[in-house]
Design a protein that fits this description.
By secondary structure, the protein is mainly alpha-helical. It has one domain. The longest helix is centred in the middle third of the chain and has 33 residues.
């Protein structure tokens, strides 16, 4: 019974719509100021009356998207340089599995690149010029502290 959320689906959808609306406001209005004051995170609370009229939630979404683009570009450059090294290698043998480029935790760089680019592509819709706020998650510690 705990997994049955059908009776509250309309509340969940209404909350998602409300979050989407205030996250995409470009200017800091009274609703944004109220949410900043009540959020429980000191760094965001300090943005309530900092003199900047931009909505900090929107700015954070823009910053996150720009960082995603940078991660993808950096990985593309790393993979391109590795491919270039492979092309200049005199040996035609396949790369041994232990020499395949991986992240520090063992993920293949090609898979990491695909994963980050998929997130980048699904995070921002250029046609509607909106961000998908469902892609943004706080750590469990932050989730426990944030009050909206």
């Amino acid at each position: 019974m705990l997994d049955d959320i059908s009776h509250s689906r309309h509340l969940i959808e209404a909350m998602k719509k409300e979050i989407h609306t205030f996250m995409h406001k470009k200017e800091k209005d009274e609703e944004i100021r109220r949410r900043l004051r009540q959020c429980g995170i000191r760094q965001l609370q300090e943005l309530t009356n900092n003199g900047n009229q931009r909505n900090p939630f929107f700015s954070l979404m823009e910053d996150a998207f720009n960082m995603l683009k940078c991660v993808c570009i950096r990985l593309e450059r790393i993979l391109a340089s590795l491919e270039q090294e492979d092309l200049t290698d005199e040996e035609d043998d396949a790369i041994p599995p232990e020499n395949v480029p991986r992240a520090h935790y063992g993920e293949l760089l090609t898979l990491m690149h695909q994963r980050w680019c998929r997130l980048r592509d699904s995070f921002y819709n250029a046609e509607t010029r909106t961000y998908d706020t469902t892609k943004v998650r706080a750590s469990q510690t932050e989730q426990a502290r944030v009050r909206f």
